């Protein structure tokens, strides 16, 4: 006979609040429950007793959202970029914010960047225009090794892009705030080496985090440092780009084109000039989508580690901004 | 004092005739002379005494061209495809025909194929159309591992494409006439396994040599074996494709699009329907251009080996057709 009184009291199950807007909620909940059967998952706005909530998985929450909770153990961002969370003054300074480290982000971002680098490298825009005019004008194209591609920002996503471009044989250079060396990539560090870095980038890829230091970094002064006819690929944040300056740079010819996966407003207003500019390709923030299946697994695994007082990766350095 | 009579008679310098039409002759001659200072290079039509000519580097020669020579040691094709040379009944059966093995062909071809696979994989055609309509419609995209790409033909160029696609994580399958296994690539061999091969190819890449067996292989019956909405990439030869069948397959929806770097006539006539079909992207035979600098070096190196009676790679098997 089992003596029930001898069994330990069941530990309180950790409580995760799902508070993400503009995502496929049903899919997320299915995967969170699949990977975390021992976690109680609540869905905003049915939060129950707010003081019982340990963790929040958040994306685009409304103003004032954070005021309602007790002592949270951590806040998980649904995306890799956390600039919105950091701007929210309601988040207590003691609560750790953890960025998304879904393992599918890096290959997806690298694919997207490579696709657009190759499109430019092999002059596909010109060939498409030729087809419309029934022109057959073959031209020699340089080897990948004869093309310089520069990556602004060598975080996880920037490094994944750089690695893949190196595999293809491109001449790759990277710029980062602090030294972050990579095999096969020419390194440039800090504001003092930015001009040198830019001077040979035939394609410039922005993968920076958005911080007060990087806001508006993609401006006319920077574009004028690039070799004439360069391509800009912005997969960072809309706030990195001075949008009117981009049009000026295209008009001046220092840029030949731009690929923008992020914009200052998403979606941009219907009268935004970029929609109809044939030199600019816009995509709706799809370069590196968080995938519920794998992302839910990383969030659950991190909760498990925090519950066991083990360290987790991806904790945001608030003073650094990423 | 040197006894001149004791010196060996100078060996006859090998004579190479350059007979290529529609290429940058000046550039080719510069590199041939650079790499082969000990070879006498003549340029058609200034051939001198035809019986002195040992080698011909040929591309798109006129009818009757081959009747004028004595015993040639080898004929070099300027391109990787040799189907035109093989159709020329004037070439004596005893003369070896050597295909171009410029080392820059493989990476260029793999780049081109990858570019178009990624463009389809990441739905860039739809996003470009959305931009023109000012629509912001982000959608999830599958992982590379969830996409099946099939390569028809696993010669040097097909293998280079397959390898790069495997590196990116795609599910790659290859079909070849005879077994030609590759790591990471699901192999299908011979006509009996063609239907099985086709049944899952969301992208079908044709890199076959053009032979009597492969002429017209890309026809409606084949397209109907593919999963609905597949993409065709033809980098083989125009003769592989039944062009009216392509339009039918696009109308039926078994194909969603096609990328054609080769056509039955190059350039196609001005009234060819493909020019204005938005589902078809045409490029002017630029997927894997022979580069004079490196290609001239391989030709000169092969002449050197033949002069020393050493075997050379790339000799065409005439009965096989490639």
Explain what you see.
- The structure is a homodimer of 322-residue chains.
- Chain A is an alpha/beta fold.
- Chain A has 9 helices and 12 strands.
- In chain A, the strands form 2 sheets. A 7-stranded parallel β-sheet of chain A has the order 8-7-6-9-10-11-12. In chain A, strands 2-1-3-4-5 form a 5-stranded parallel β-sheet, covered by helices on one side.
- In chain A, helix 1 packs across helix 9 and helix 3 packs across helix 5.
- The model of chain A has no long low-confidence stretch (mean pLDDT 94).
Largest interface: A-B, 45 and 44 residues
Largest sheet of chain A: 7 strands, parallel
Helix content of chain A: 25-40%
In angstroms, what separates the terminal alpha carbons of chain A? Answer: 56 Å
Average predicted local confidence, pLDDT of chain A: 94
Strand order of the largest sheet of chain A: 8-7-6-9-10-11-12
Query: Given the C-alpha coordinates, what overall shape of chain A results?
Result: elongated
């Amino acid at each position: 006979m089992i003596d029930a009184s001898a069994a330990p009291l069941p530990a309180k199950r950790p409580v995760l609040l799902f508070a993400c807007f503009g995502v496929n909620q049903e899919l997320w909940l299915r995967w969170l429950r699949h990977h975390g059967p021992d976690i109680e998952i609540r869905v905003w706005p049915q939060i129950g007793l707010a003081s019982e909530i340990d963790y929040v998985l958040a994306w685009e929450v409304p103003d004032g959202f954070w005021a309602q909770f007790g002592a949270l153990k951590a806040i998980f961002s649904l995306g890799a970029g956390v600039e919105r969370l950091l701007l929210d003054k309601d988040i207590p300074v003691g609560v750790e914010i953890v960025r998304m480290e879904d393992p599918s982000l890096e290959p997806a971002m690298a694919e997207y960047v490579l696709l657009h680098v190759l499109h430019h490298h092999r002059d596909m825009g010109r060939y498409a225009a030729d087809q419309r005019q029934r022109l057959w004008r073959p031209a020699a194209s340089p080897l990948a090794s004869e093309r310089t591609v520069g990556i602004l920002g060598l975080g996880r996503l920037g490094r994944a892009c750089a690695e893949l471009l190196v595999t293809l044989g491109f001449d790759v250079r990277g710029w980062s705030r602090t030294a972050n060396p990579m095999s096969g990539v020419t390194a440039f560090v800090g504001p003092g080496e930015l001009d040198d870095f830019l001077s040979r980038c035939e394609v410039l890829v922005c993968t920076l985090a958005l911080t007060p230091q990087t806001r508006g970094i993609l401006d006319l002064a920077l574009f004028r440092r690039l070799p004439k006819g360069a391509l800009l690929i912005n997969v960072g944040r809309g706030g990195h780009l001075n949008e009117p300056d981009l049009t000026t740079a295209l008009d001046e010819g220092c840029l030949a084109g731009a690929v923008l996966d992020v914009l200052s407003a998403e979606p941009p207003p219907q009268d935004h000039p970029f929609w109809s500019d044939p030199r600019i390709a816009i995509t709706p923030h799809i370069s590196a989508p968080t995938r519920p299946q794998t992302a839910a697994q990383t969030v659950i695994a991190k909760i498990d580690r925090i519950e066991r007082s083990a360290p987790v990766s991806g904790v945001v350095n608030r003073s650094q901004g990423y």
